[in-house]
Specification:
The chain is α+β, with helices and mostly antiparallel strands. Helices cover 29% and strands 20% of the residues. Strand 1 and strand 2 form a beta hairpin. The model has no long low-confidence stretch (mean pLDDT 81).
Length: 94
């Protein structure tokens, strides 16, 4: 069963899912992240057993309040904007 950690949280996924944390790939960190003044992506990109794609952004405000001025939905939308390109480029370079 694939397990990934984000912050202090651990996530377990079904055995037949492909789960990636793109921000850990060297190509993303060293090349792609600099696109458009610093692109950010969602925390996990997953493909389920039916080839459905899941883009998962983890937010945990139980201990620290959100203090960013940008609306949460807009922040996540910005991360989703780059994920397709990041996945494609990273898969070709890793």
């Amino acid at each position: 069963m694939p397990t990934l950690t984000e912050g202090n949280l651990e996530f377990s996924f079904p055995r037949d899912w492909a789960v990636k944390k793109i921000e850990t790939f060297s190509f993303y960190r060293n090349q792609f992240q600099q696109v458009c003044g610093g692109s950010k992506i969602v925390d996990f990109v997953c493909r389920d057993s039916q080839n459905g794609i899941w883009l998962i952004e983890v937010k945990d405000y139980r201990h620290n309040r959100r203090e960013k001025s940008i609306e949460l939905a807009f922040e996540i939308a910005l991360k989703v904007r780059f994920v397709g390109s990041a996945c494609h480029c990273t898969s070709k370079c890793e």
